[in-house]
Amino acid sequence: MVRAVDRVYERLRSAILAGEYRPAERLGEAELAGLTGSSRTPVREALRRLEVEGLVEVLPHRGARVSEWSREDLEEIYDLRLLLEGFAAMRAAERIKAEGVDRMEELCGLIERVAAPGPAQDLDQVTELNAEFHDIVRDAAANARLMTLLNAVVQVPLVVRTFHRYEAADLARSCAHHRELVAAFRAGDGLWAQSVMRSHVLAAKTVLLRASDDQPTTEER
After folding, report:
1. Residues 53 and 102 in one domain
2. CA-CA distances (angstroms) from residue 114 to 131, 136, 141, 162?
3. DSSP alpha helix (H) spans, the chain
4. How sure is the predictor about 217, in pLDDT bands with cuts at 50, 70 and 90?
5. Residues 159 and 113 in one domain
6. Quick one: which of 1, 53, 67, 96 has the fewest CB in 10 Å?
7. For residue 203, what are the domain limits?
8. How many structural domains is the chain composed of?
9. CATH code (residue 155)
10. Which DSSP symbol is given to 163?
């Protein structure tokens, strides 16, 4: 049987990642308890877990709110991703099975199809497919501590809906990186995979910081 706190945690986490709650939005315990059909105790514990993940801020005497990130925060997060995901790619290239690489190649085609400019473009689906692509890499890295560290920094791109900030050239570059990662994994070349993954993360960092510079502050909104 699913514990109340686990149910509340999953519900709130999904809502934050889906953009139902925006950065800096207040998360009242009473309102959340009513929404999730629970008492305040599991809500409070779920908020603490989300705080550890960096998705929520719990402020003394002011309650909880969805985290928001400054330019400096984003730079720090992406610098950590650069190190961690590059290392994960290197390990994965030496351990991944053929069926994993086959699925990554299949995902490349799916992402390219839904990322293509036009009325059929679906950037939310790009996000889902991209997450599966990178999950295969992280799983193949086979390092539990690395996964724990990565989980603390991979949430931000989901919350800020990174792909909605990509221009056509950015999407094309991302897709090209995916294709080259597949080639590196097919070759079992860890250094190649690490180099491409680092370029991939750096490109994403540039897009997000560019969008952050154009975003109005909370006071300006």
Report:
1. no
2. 14, 20, 27, 15
3. 4-17, 29-36, 40-52, 71-93, 98-115, 123-141, 144-151, 155-159, 168-187, 190-214
4. very low
5. yes
6. 1
7. 71-214
8. 2
9. 1.20.120.530
10. G
Buried b (16+ CB within 10 A) or exposed e, 65-104: bbbebeeeebeebbeebbebbbbbbbbbbeebeeebbeeb
Residue 156 has pLDDT above 70, yes or no: no
Kindly report, residue by residue over 101-114, the tens digit of the pLDDT.
999 999 999 999 99
Buried b (16+ CB within 10 A) or exposed e, 19-39: eebebeeebebeebbeebebe
Q: Is the pLDDT of residue 158 over 80?
A: no
Phi and psi, residue 175, nearest 5°:
-65, -40
Q: Are residues 79 and 146 in the same domain?
A: yes
Q: Are residues 139 and 175 in the same domain?
A: yes
Residues belonging to the chain: 221
- Same domain? For 114 and 183 the reply is yes
Residue 23's nearest CA partner among 72, 68, 70 is 68
The CATH number covering residue 52 comes to 1.10.10.10
Residue 159, number of CB atoms within 10 A of its CB = 20
Q: What is the pTM of this model?
A: 0.78
Cα(107)–Cα(48) distance, rounded to whole angstroms? 35
> Which amino acid makes up residue 218?
T
Using CA atoms, how far apart are residues 221 and 219, in angstroms rounded to an integer? 6
From CA 168, how far away is CA 2, in angstroms rounded? 43
Whether residues 33 and 131 share a domain: the answer is no
